[in-house]
Amino acid sequence: MYLIVGLGNPGKQYENTRHNVGFDAIDVLADKYHINMTENKHKAICGKGTIEGQKVILAKPQTFMNLSGESVRDIINFYKIDPEEEMLVMFDDISLAPGNLRIRKKGSAGGHNGIKNIIAQTGTQNFKRVKIGVGEKPAGWDLADHVLGHFSNADRKLVNEALEDAAEAAKLIIIDEVDKAMNDFNQKKQR
Predict the structure, then answer these.
(1) pTM score, whole prediction
(2) Topology of the domain covering 2-185
């Protein structure tokens, strides 16, 4: 069983914000692989299905971003998932331009509070991740205002294309093709 977690904040006011691209990535995967996201348990909205023959759980934690690890910990404990071998987390990254992805096998939180909490709750930073570029905050802006803000139409188009790439990267990762995913998607897109 493979756990794919998309990070975001619950509630209508956060839909389509930069901070919720992890939720958006899960929605793309759910749609592509016909996985119903109807279970509300483990402090998350979840769906079970199959991707390329691999059983998966898709999860969108409902704890708010900074407490995402509580939901992740509940899921991995319940299903006996090894986060270092059977977990992928998809989330926003302000150091990447909209439309770009960065796939990593492991790493630090890099200032991302959702990832920081997952590391604290699972006791490891050795889990796979797909970072989805949302662009740097403009000079003088508060970071929270930036990540909780909406994309311009042009950036939204780039991000929607990146979400399709993120779904493809997730597929490669769960069939143990992490290096191929990194080679295919880590280069900067000239869009």
Answers:
(1) 0.96
(2) Rossmann fold (3.40.50)
